[in-house]
Q: What sequence folds into this?
């Protein structure tokens, strides 16, 4: 029996969260490993970090009774152990096996969330892992460690891996040192960290042994086993720390190189300083919180904001009924409350924000995987990875973004031979960038591939009966066709997400986040997909409007301006209502017509136009009245009403009234596609 | 009450160990998320039993054991290694350095409880 039998569901949840964290870190390290596998110059710490991750995962999964995960992690660990001990060479096919194993591990962990990790078959990956392990490299014979003068206490505490690293250093003819340092107990971790970082710039710290000696209650000593090219005088010059002692081991000449054939170990130390950040450092200063709890907190903040509005309203009323010192004090108190509330709101909002870099890391993996599969050469460039976005949005945008990226590699980037023939760089480029634009975050995916051939798009749409004729279809309208349901076909089943998705699904997923997606393309030159998203969905300022006796909220983030308009300002072009707005023609949509609302009385000649814009598109919404601005907390309509067009959710106005929030992206989308 | 120091970098594994020991209702527990934390805690707390993992970042379990066994103040404290099945060499070294017991994950909670009782019960 393992602990899993009586472990509570919560412990399993913790396991899954930690497992996912481990896999994320592993994947990150794998990307780094894949980069250096080409050059053959790898930081051994990367492989060791991956090994440690697989090792932890195996132990954890075993404790919780997830046999398949444990089994796969165990085999992976064996492979990584052989790699880090230099028993097998690091090459491209090994990296591919590692990537695939990691994907499978991720899938297993995810399916364990549903209580079953037995669904997926690991036998194929296992046999590939085993195949990798049958290619040993030549290694040298016995080790001359005892003759080096390394203190026996130090030698006895070396793990098998550290012993291997020591031998590697000897093989390379490095000089070995024992660096002895004394630190205060209060600051030893940062002091040691500093010393280690300095040392790593010019060599490898093979082992860090805390040692007895000195005053145990106030200080602690460390012996660091260090391999480097530096001569003792150079090393002494570099380490100008108080309390640091340098003892050369063996002779103070560089150790003679062992025989040349021993050099075939593919993993080499180097660039330690730069890549030190890649180690799986624990996140001791972070707290893992269920996003549901933050939602709850945000809801409470939202309710508080509403309560405050009520108090503020009452205060105003009190003051309007006559000046009294209490009314003034109350107004002051209400103002103070408002300020603190806004701080609280901001604070809770910030907790939800995470850098899109996490998303980018995932995309990097995907690009590598697909380009390897398709044998295409792709250079992925990332910009603005530190742009912050609501955690839920980051999660929900992951699948659509994955699909767009996959399209870029699959259909955009041409094979190398074709690129060379076209006079392009043999390596394709995909840029993934993110930046903030007002209350929105824009994510762009740009490739320098073959672009979208609108002629072909039109033909295909005609053939599939999605459009009746191509006459008068502008390029912009033609580009919209790719977002129509039924345009993407089943031959695009995505292996990454495991189901066939078309751009219509991508568009709907993004619209569900109150976002917009645009495509720009120049045939032969490339394609750019622009996703515009709100920074957060949790709480937002909205304009409350009235139309045909109903009240609606429009998120302020999508409003460009509001205009008081007379009926005579309206024009009709091609049976669509438009108006002239500063030299440009603004298409209009009557909200009552959109929702098919019955008017209790005849409409007046004067009304308001709310100009909304999402991405590059503008639209004027004709409404009867503007009621005011208010903070609203958007609540979902539930599964039954989820698909209602033009509505993204509901909000409570604080006076017992619940109103609908307009899905501006959806309405603008329908209008631009000419469906209205 | 006797006090047990747990050194383990996996939070999930650590809380499993804590709940296993907690259910015995007879011991205090001190947790260290890595070797550094353990080094800091040792002089501050009176520890009666140490449980440590081997594979940890910064300083590993073997280095920690070597430190403990070379210090007159801590030399006599019973010490268990709890590690995922791994290098035989590392296991042998751990025992040679002075670990009293070696448990392989996954292990039975009752087995750990039995061992704890045997040493400090």
A:
């Amino acid at each position: 029996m393992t602990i899993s039998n009586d472990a509570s569901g919560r412990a399993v949840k913790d396991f899954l969260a930690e497992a996912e964290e481990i896999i994320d870190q592993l994947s990150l390290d794998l990307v780094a490993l894949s980069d250096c596998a080409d050059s053959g110059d790898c930081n051994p710490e990367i492989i060791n970090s991956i090994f440690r991750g697989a090792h932890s995962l195996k132990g954890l999964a075993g404790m919780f009774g997830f046999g398949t995960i444990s089994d796969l992690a165990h085999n992976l660990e064996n492979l990584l152990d052989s790699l880090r001990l230099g028993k097998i060479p690091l090459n491209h096919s090994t990296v591919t096996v590692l990537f695939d194993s990691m994907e499978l591990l991720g899938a297993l962990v995810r399916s364990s969330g549903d209580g079953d990790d037995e669904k997926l078959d690991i036998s194929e990956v296992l046999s590939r892992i085993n195949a990798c392990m049958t290619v040993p490299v030549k290694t040298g014979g016995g080790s001359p460690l005892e003759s080096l003068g390394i203190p026996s206490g130090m030698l006895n505490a070396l793990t098998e891996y550290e012993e291997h690293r020591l031998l590697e250093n000897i093989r390379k003819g490095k000089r070995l040192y024992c660096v002895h340092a004394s630190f205060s107990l209060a600051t030893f971790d940062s002091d040691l960290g500093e010393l280690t970082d300095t040392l790593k710039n010019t060599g490898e710290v093979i082992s860090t042994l805390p040692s007895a000696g000195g005053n145990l209650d106030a200080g602690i000593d460390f012996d660091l086993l260090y391999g480097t090219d530096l001569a003792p005088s150079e090393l002494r010059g570099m380490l100008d720390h108080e309390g640091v002692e340098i003892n050369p081991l063996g002779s103070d000449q560089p150790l003679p190189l062992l025989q040349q054939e021993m050099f075939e170990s593919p993993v080499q130390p180097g660039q330690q300083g730069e890549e030190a950040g890649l180690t799986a450092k624990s996140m001791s200063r972070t707290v893992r919180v269920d996003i549901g709890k933050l939602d709850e907190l945000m809801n409470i903040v939202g309710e508080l904001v509403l309560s405050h509005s009520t108090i503020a309203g009452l205060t105003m009323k009190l003051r309007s009924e006559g000046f009294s010192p209490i009314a003034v004090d109350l107004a002051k108190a209400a103002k103070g409350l408002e300020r603190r509330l806004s701080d609280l709101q901001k604070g809770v909002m910030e907790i939800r924000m995470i850098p899109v870099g996490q998303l980018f890391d995932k995309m990097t993996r995907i690009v590598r995987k697909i380009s390897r599969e398709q044998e295409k050469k792709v250079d992925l460039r990332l910009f603005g990875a530190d742009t912050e976005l609501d955690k839920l949005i980051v999660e929900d945008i992951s699948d659509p973004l994955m699909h767009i990226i996959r399209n870029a590699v699959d259909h955009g980037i041409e094979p190398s031979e074709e690129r060379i023939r076209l006079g392009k760089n043999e390596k394709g480029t995909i840029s993934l960038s993110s930046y903030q634009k007002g209350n929105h975050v824009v994510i762009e995916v740009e490739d320098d591939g073959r672009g979208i051939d609108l002629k072909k798009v039109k033909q295909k749409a005609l053939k599939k009966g999605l459009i009746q004729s191509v006459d008068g279809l502008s390029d912009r309208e033609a580009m919209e066709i790719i977002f129509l349901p039924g345009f993407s076909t089943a031959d695009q089943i995505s292996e990454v997400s495991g189901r066939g998705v078309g751009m219509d699904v991508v568009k709907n997923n993004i619209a569900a986040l109150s976002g917009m997606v645009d495509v720009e393309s120049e045939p032969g030159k490339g394609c750019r997909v622009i996703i515009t998203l709100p920074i957060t969905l949790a709480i937002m300022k909205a304009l409350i409007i009235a139309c045909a006796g109903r009240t609606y909220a429009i998120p302020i983030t999508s409003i460009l301006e509001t205009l008081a308009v007379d009926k005579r300002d309206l024009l009709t072009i091609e049976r669509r209502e438009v108006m002239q707005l500063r030299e440009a023609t603004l298409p209009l949509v009557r909200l009552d017509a959109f929702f098919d609302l019955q008017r209790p009385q005849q409409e007046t000649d004067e009304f308001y136009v709310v100009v909304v814009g999402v991405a590059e598109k503008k639209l004027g919404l004709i409404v009867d009245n503007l009621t005011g601005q208010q903070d609203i907390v958007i609540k979902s309509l539930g599964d039954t009403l989820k698909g209602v067009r033009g509505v993204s959710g509901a909000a409570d106005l604080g006076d017992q009234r619940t109103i609908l929030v307009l899905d501006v992206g959806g309405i603008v989308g329908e209008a631009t596609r000419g469906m209205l | 009450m006797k006090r047990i120091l747990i050194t383990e970098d996996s939070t999930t594994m650590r809380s499993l160990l804590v709940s296993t020991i907690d259910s015995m209702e007879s011991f205090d527990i001190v947790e260290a998320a890595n070797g550094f934390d353990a080094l800091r805690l040792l002089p501050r707390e009176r520890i009666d039993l140490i449980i440590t993992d081997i594979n940890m970042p910064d300083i590993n379990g073997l280095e920690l054991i070597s430190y403990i066994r070379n210090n007159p103040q801590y030399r006599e404290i019973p010490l268990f290694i709890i590690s995922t099945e791994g290098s035989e060499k590392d296991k042998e070294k751990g025992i040679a350095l002075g670990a009293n017991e070696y448990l392989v994950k996954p292990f039975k909670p009752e087995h750990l409880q039995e061992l704890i009782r045997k040493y400090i019960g």
About this structure: Chain A has five domains: 3-132, 145-263, 291-354, 356-534, 539-672. The radius of gyration of chain A is 32 Å. The domain at 356-534 of chain A is CATH 3.30.565.10 (Heat Shock Protein 90). Chain A touches chain B through 47 residues (CB under 8 Å).
